Structure formats: structure tokens, C-alpha cells
Amino acid sequence: MAKHAREPETSLYAPVKAFLEAQGFAVKGEIHGCDLVAIRDEEPRRLVIGELKMTFNLELLLQGVDRMRAADEVWLAVRQTRKGRDTDRRAVRLCRLLGVGLLAVSTTTGQVQILAEPGPYKPRPDDKKRKKLIREHSGRIGDPATGGSTRQPVMTVYRQQALVCAAAMRSAPTRPKDLKARAPDAASILLRNVYGWFERVDRGLYRLTEAGIDALQRWPTT
């Protein structure tokens, strides 16, 4: 790892140059602040700008965005790693969204891997995630969780319904069917008992546990 940390960005230049030359470009380094500029004489002439960094970071991304104003294509090149940002799907997706190419270069073999192609990109819709977001947003009562909070339980729809169930059986054991009007998922919540707040005392009859009492003190219900 120490060896990689000392490797200069120039170690990426030859592999990226060879990569572009194989596509018919004439490549030259360090032109007007760009790590490399490649031109292919055709009609119309194509100009490519490349920026090199040993690791994927914000500065490299900003450079790429700035270079897009002058180039037909922009390629960002980073050293290939096993657990670095070049393996992060979010980084690859971001490059695609911006329309810049991303290359991972092996500094030992000189192999160049294309992670993202430059050009227009529209991500594939995630309908499942979209539906989950809408369902959770619609089901929450009020706005019980402050955005940006960490290291504390999130007040989800499920937890809100569980608290409704707990509050209803504070004074006496209760049956799920009697809670359904206030908590539609009561039967599942009591059966699964994810938080350990409930225990069955008879067939179809549940009461509150000490953990449930503590939960009501932590999250008082109205």
C-alpha cells in the first residue's frame, strides 16, 4: 500500500495514452493545464481531454466538469483498486450522470478498464425503491424524524404503529383485532414482536412487556 501511495499520477499517463491511441487519437500531455489532450482528425475533428488522479475525489470530478466546456469527450482516470472509489457504483453512476468517462488503470500491468463511458446517460428507474419511499412518507404521522440524525432509532411507520399498539395495551392485554382501526398492521406487529415490546398471554391476546413500557416513556404517545 505504501508503494501505491508514492506512485505519481504520471504512472497513469502511458496506459491512458495507449488506450486513446488505439482509438485513432494523437495524444499529448500537459496542454494548458490539462493532463492530456487527444485529437482525432476526422470530420468533424474530435478533441478529448483526460485528467489523471491516483484516487477518485471531488477535485478530479470538478476538473472533469470544467473540461467539458472545451472537449467533445472527457475521461477521468484513476489507479485501479480493490476497495477504492473506483469500485463504488455510486461514483461510477455519478460520472455517467455528468457525462464524463471513468477509467481504472492498473499501475502494475498497464491494463485500462472502462468503468463509465462519456456521453448522455439516464439511470434505470428503481420503481421498487420509489414505491417504498412513497409508502413510508405517506404512512408516517407528522414529521417525527429530523433529517441528518444518526445513532438513534428512526421513527418509521412501523415503529409508530407499534407505539400505538403499546399505548392501547398499557392498562390491559389487548387483541390485535381491537387495534386494527388505529394500527392497520397490528396483527403482524404483535406476532413478529420485532422490538420485544409484546408477549402473548393467551391465544390472540397480548400484553405489554417492560421493554414496551420503557418505549412509551421514551416516545410518549398522545
Please characterize this protein's 3D structure.
There is one protein chain. The chain has 9 helices and 8 strands. It has 222 residues and is of the alpha/beta class. It has 2 domains: 2-116, Rossmann fold (3-Layer(aba) Sandwich), CATH 3.40.50; 149-218, Arc Repressor Mutant, subunit A (Orthogonal Bundle). Strands 1-2-3-4-5-6 form a 6-stranded mixed β-sheet, sandwiched between helices. Strands 7-8 form a two-stranded antiparallel sheet. A hairpin with a 2-residue loop joins strand 7 and strand 8. It is elongated. The relative contact order is 0.08.
User: What is the arithmetic mean of pLDDT?
Assistant: 89
How many strands in all?
A: 8
Based on secondary structure, the structural category is alpha/beta
Number of domains: 2
> How far from one another are the termini?
57 Å
Using only CA atoms, what is the Rg?
Answer: 28 Å
Main sheet strand line-up: 1-2-3-4-5-6
Strand and helix map with partners:
Blueprint: H1 2-6, H2 13-21, E1 26-31, E2 34-40, E3 46-53, H3 58-67, E4 73-79, H4 89-98, E5 101-105, E6 112-116, H5 127-139, H6 157-168, H7 176-179, H8 186-192, E7 198-202, E8 205-208, H9 210-218
Parallel strand pairs: 3-4, 4-5
Antiparallel strand pairs: 1-2, 2-3, 5-6, 7-8
